[in-house]
Write a structure and sequence with these properties.
- The chain is α/β, with parallel strands linked by helices and 350 residues long.
- It folds into two domains: 4-154, Rossmann fold (3-Layer(aba) Sandwich); 172-347, Glycogen Phosphorylase B (Rossmann fold, 3-Layer(aba) Sandwich).
- The chain is built from 14 helices and twelve strands.
- The chain has a six-stranded parallel sheet with strand order 3-2-1-4-5-6, with helices on both faces.
């Protein structure tokens, strides 16, 4: 039915991961179809090397943002548009449904420009084929993966086929991770802690992390991942902790995925790390939610558990707390005992 399909999902890492099941479902339904994907540079590694992606068009957002030569940026934008149009795609699917993604559509010589109803920022003006949405774009009670799979159902693919199929690591990645993980104690489980994300109020309280790490001390190999900006946080919560490896700021995304493949458990707030760990389909993933919705964003299915606050303002979905009293109460509302108890169950600790 389709010879070529283009997916438009620029960012972020977690949302890009959440769109992969749509790609895989379409590829399974139409195995001879060629697929393309427009993505921003931050999440590009997962798309460029994905076994179901034939063409990846990377939008160098970071470079363009820092460039003073705006005319050069515009020229590069139209070079990407020209490359896409030369492929003659049958359809383009805008899964992001915001202005930043929809702005590409007027320049694409593609007959069918498909999206769900309910797009934000006038994005719907740029599509010409609409699927009636079952839930709003930011419905906190409906998972974003399931929303993306409504495109699969509309196009004849199986909406229940939730697969990620990340690319397997190459030798360079494996060798690099081998070196980074030198010193692990062979007879102990491997626990990866990714304690930070981009929103401060999505962070679990440091005292909560410390209590969990106190339980894990001497029981497991503990690896910390994140960015350079997370190092101070990691050092505070891990002070005096033996058997730890701090890799924050020392891995790229493919190395991070390989580290998760070697873990028994990954613990994280609602972050790109949690979604990558879910996508590699190996470790048990524990996510701690604060301001954002577990029903909308959390890993689901096998090998995962999510915890969220039982408070009146949850989920607020706001970057800054709007409570007048007990500010950021959600950051302490999930008790460390809940995480310790599930660790005892899945790792058979006393």
């Amino acid at each position: 039915m389709f010879k070529k399909i283009l997916i438009l999902r620029l960012s972020a890492i977690g949302d890009t991961i959440h769109t992969l099941p749509l790609l895989n479902a379409l590829k399974k339904k139409y195995p001879g179809c060629k697929t393309g994907w427009i993505v921003e540079d931050k999440a590009a590694l997962f798309i460029q090397n994905h076994p179901c992606v034939d063409k990846c068009y990377v939008i160098p957002k970071k470079k363009w943002k820092n460039s003073k030569n705006k005319l050069k940026n515009i020229k590069e934008f139209f070079e990407i548009i020209r490359e896409i149009n030369n492929e003659h795609y049958d359809i383009v699917i805008d899964t992001q449904q915001l202005f930043k993604s929809a702005i590409f559509l007027p320049f694409l010589n593609i007959k069918r420009k498909i999206t769900l109803t309910g797009g934000r920022e006038f994005s719907y003006l740029f599509s010409n084929e609409f699927i009636k949405e079952s839930h709003a774009l930011f419905d906190t009670g409906y998972h974003v993966v399931k929303r993306n799979m409504e495109f699969a159902k509309y196009l004849g693919a199986d909406p229940e086929n939730i697969e990620f199929k990340l690319a397997q690591p190459d030798k360079e990645t494996i060798d690099s991770v081998d070196k980074k993980l030198t010193g692990l104690t062979p007879d102990k489980k491997v626990i990866v802690i990714s304690p930070a994300t981009t929103w401060k109020n999505k962070h679990w309280d440091e005292k909560c992390w410390i209590q969990v790490l106190e339980f894990l001390k001497n029981r497991a190999n503990i690896i910390f991942t994140g960015t350079k900006q997370d190092i101070q946080l990691i050092e505070r919560i891990s002070e005096g902790l033996p058997n730890k490896i701090i890799l924050a700021g020392k891995t790229n995304l493919t190395e991070l995925a390989e580290i998760f493949r070697r873990a028994d458990v990954v613990i994280s707030p609602d972050s790109g790390s949690a979604h990558i760990a879910w996508a590699v389909e190996k470790p048990f993933v524990i996510t701690v939610f604060t301001a954002t919705s577990a029903l909308r964003n959390a890993p689901f299915g096998r090998n995962c558990a999510s915890f969220y606050p039982e408070i009146d303002c949850y989920p607020c979905m706001k970057r800054k707390c709007r409570r007048k009293k007990e500010k950021n109460i959600c950051c302490t509302a999930v008790s460390p005992e809940k995480i310790v108890n599930i660790l005892k169950n899945i790792l058979h600790y006393d």
